[in-house]
Specification:
By secondary structure, the chain is α/β, with parallel strands linked by helices. It has 21 helices and 14 strands. It catalyses: L-tyrosyl-[protein] + ATP = O-phospho-L-tyrosyl-[protein] + ADP + H(+).
Length: 504
């Protein structure tokens, strides 16, 4: 794992890491507060050997020093002996056994120094001090009685001072260890979660599992996803620019064979495919294209609700031959945009969408219009895959941080199995902050910066296309299925009724 991977892991799971660090710190603090405090006092005794016969030569001094060091090492072992500890217990009136007291005493001799250092530990500072001093005094007396003729003397040179703070536990040492242990556990949990979490989060993930490039990145927008959404009133600048970027990228997918019929689908339901299809049709018409949006989701149609249109007559009646195309097509508030709703829900959606009549209908419409088909999701049913075989290609909508890699792989497999062409993917509902990083130079989604623009000027919008978007339906005479749209498209729904009322 590189430092960049570690930083991404930290940024993605920072809440988990913070929680684990706090838990580790809290456990360390609890451990510190629940431990019995121990105090340690230190006293010292000097072992000295006099020069023999008053000789003060360097050789004699060295010999005396060696004797003192040897004796100090021998006598230090006596500090924890039963003879010494029993006298200390009696002197200090301790309620401890000899072995218990011996475990609280340590005697050390520094290298090249004839000094015995006694460390005594107790539950109180005063008791630790008393034990340390008592051990030195008892040891001195015991040595003088048992070994009086060695010529080596032991003297108490440093009495123990009263400890000012506990020697155990030490919060300054335990708390950082708890914090570090919590972070380590947090990173391990984050790594395990990262390995198990296969949700799509970036354009790199989409391209890896879909096998096609990302054509658009749409920010999460509550207004765009609302039931009473109005595409014409969409005021969010990021959303408008993202939809125009999707429109521009679609035109550059294959400059030699511009896709005229595009299936908009997703791996599962609820990923925003209908919203993307309706929005894409709107921005295509806004640029001057003649567009027909077909609600080919014959199981859960939603386009009629998005555009507030009548859904009693639509695609199913046209395919069944009970209605003509000119009667089923409905105009919208956007000039150049027509909608073919789903119509009545049939018992055999897959057979209708995979029929030769559907193929011929798409071919006929693409002669004069750009066709956008809102198709069902790929995994539950085969409708979208069948449609993609009749269209120029399919665009797969992926919900950021929701769609899983295995779902996207299976969706791509279903399209490839019928010979469908995957034009690309759309990463939908991306966090707005991540979109901001795209706009200002972060290329993690593959687009880089938008560049410099003033106010809210249209990105990539040419004056000619802006002017062409003002064309009205009455000014066009495009042929569809042998009949003109001029004056022959039925008006449906509340919006159409209001237009007819204003015309009167």
């Amino acid at each position: 794992m590189t430092l960049e991977d570690l930083w991404k892991l930290t940024r993605r799971y920072w809440i988990l890491l913070l929680a684990c660090a706090c838990i580790g710190l809290a456990l360390a603090a609890a451990y510190t507060w629940t431990r019995t405090k121990q105090y340690t006092a230190t006293s010292q005794a000097l072992v000295a050997a006099p020069n023999s016969s008053g000789n003060s030569s360097s050789g004699a001094a060295y010999s005396s020093g060696l004797v003192a060091q040897q004796r100090a090492a021998t006598w230090a072992d006596l500090a924890t002996s039963q003879q010494v500890t029993s006298q200390v217990i009696a002197k200090e009136k301790l309620k401890l056994s000899n072995s218990e007291l011996a475990s609280k005493i340590s005697a050390t001799v520094p290298q090249d120094k004839p000094i015995i250092t006694i460390d005594a530990t107790a539950n109180t500072a005063s008791q630790a001090k008393a034990i340390a001093n008592s051990v030195v005094n008892v040891l001195t007396t015991y040595v003088q009685k048992t070994d009086p003729n060695t010529g080596v003397a032991i003297k108490n040179t440093s009495s123990a001072a009263l400890p000012q703070s506990p020697s155990y536990p030490k919060p300054a040492r335990i708390l950082p260890i708890g914090l570090l242990a919590g972070l380590v556990i947090g990173y391990l949990l984050a790594l395990i979660q990262h390995r198990r979490d296969t949700r799509i989060r970036s354009t790199e993930d989409v391209e890896e599992h879909l096998g096609a490039s990302v054509l658009g990145v749409i920010p999460g927008n509550r207004t765009l996803a609302a039931a009473d959404r109005s595409l014409g009133d969409q005021k969010d600048f990021q959303t408008r620019e993202a939809l125009r970027q999707l429109r521009t990228n679609l035109r550059f997918v294959d400059v030699d064979h511009d896709p005229r019929s595009i299936v908009i689908t997703s791996a599962r339901m609820g990923e925003g495919k209908s919203t993307v299809a309706a929005s894409l049709a709107w921005v295509l018409a806004d640029s001057g294209d003649q567009v027909v949006l077909i609600d080919a989701d014959l199981r859960r149609p939603t386009v009629a609700g998005i555009y507030d249109l009548d859904s009693s007559v639509g695609l199913t009646q046209v395919l069944a031959g009970t209605a003509t195309l000119s009667d089923a097509l409905q105009p919208t508030d956007k000039a150049g945009l027509y909608v073919l709703t789903a119509g009545q829900i049939p018992p055999n959606p897959s057979e209708l969408l995979g029929s030769q009549r559907m193929h011929q209908l798409i071919e006929k419409l693409t002669e004069t219009h750009r066709v956008i088909l809102d198709a069902p999701p790929l995994l539950p049913v085969t409708d979208a895959a069948l449609l993609s075989a009749s269209a120029d290609g399919a665009v797969v909508v992926v919900a950021a941080s929701d769609t899983r890699a295995e779902h996207l792989q299976r969706a791509a497999h279903n399209l490839n199995a019928v010979g469908g062409r995957v034009l690309g993917g759309v990463l939908n509902r991306v966090n707005t902050k991540r979109i901001n990083r795209i706009m200002y130079g972060d290329s993690q989604y593959g687009y880089g910066a938008y560049g410099t623009y003033a106010g809210e000027k249209y990105y990539g919008e040419s004056p000619a296309k802006s002017a062409s978007s003002t064309e009205t339906v009455n000014g066009s005479a495009e042929q569809v299925d042998g009949s003109t749209l001029n004056g022959k498209v039925r008006d449906h729904g509340p919006r159409a009724s209001r237009r007819r009322e204003r015309a009167r």
